[in-house]
UniProtKB/TrEMBL annotation:
Keywords: Membrane, Transmembrane, Transmembrane helix. Pfam families: 7TM_GPCR_Srh. It comes from Panagrolaimus davidi. InterPro entries: 7TM_GPCR_serpentine_rcpt_Srh. This is NADH dehydrogenase subunit 4. The chain crosses the membrane at residues 34-60, 72-98.
């Protein structure tokens, strides 16, 4: 979990030392924060996707807690965090694209 060592420094730099980025720093911070949460959650839960069936098991620290409902809840949380992380990535890349090609907004 090297991200736990680097994340505080990274968040500090993004929030305090990036005045030239303007409002883009908030998009960068949002995406980075959700990516950090996703990495941490994947490290704790350790889901194993059993393809081609639509099945998932987890072998993380919550392995012996609860029943199949706890597995369902953990996977639902994983999907929610993953979706939010992808949304942050899409908003960051959309902002960058629109700043590189501003004429798209004028049409």
């Amino acid at each position: 979990m090297i991200s736990w060592l680097i994340a505080p420094l990274y968040f500090f730099v993004v929030l305090t030392q990036s005045k030239l980025l303007g409002s883009f720093k908030w998009l960068l911070f949002n995406y980075s924060l959700w990516g950090f949460f996703l990495t941490t959650f994947m490290g704790l839960v350790k889901p194993i996707f059993l393809t081609p069936a639509f099945a998932v098991i987890h072998i993380g620290i919550f392995q012996n807690i609860g029943s199949y409902l706890s597995t369902f809840a953990l996977i639902a949380i994983l999907v929610a965090i993953g979706t939010t992380c992808m949304g942050g990535m899409v908003s960051t890349l959309t902002y960058r694209y629109l700043m590189v090609f501003p004429s798209i907004l004028k049409d």
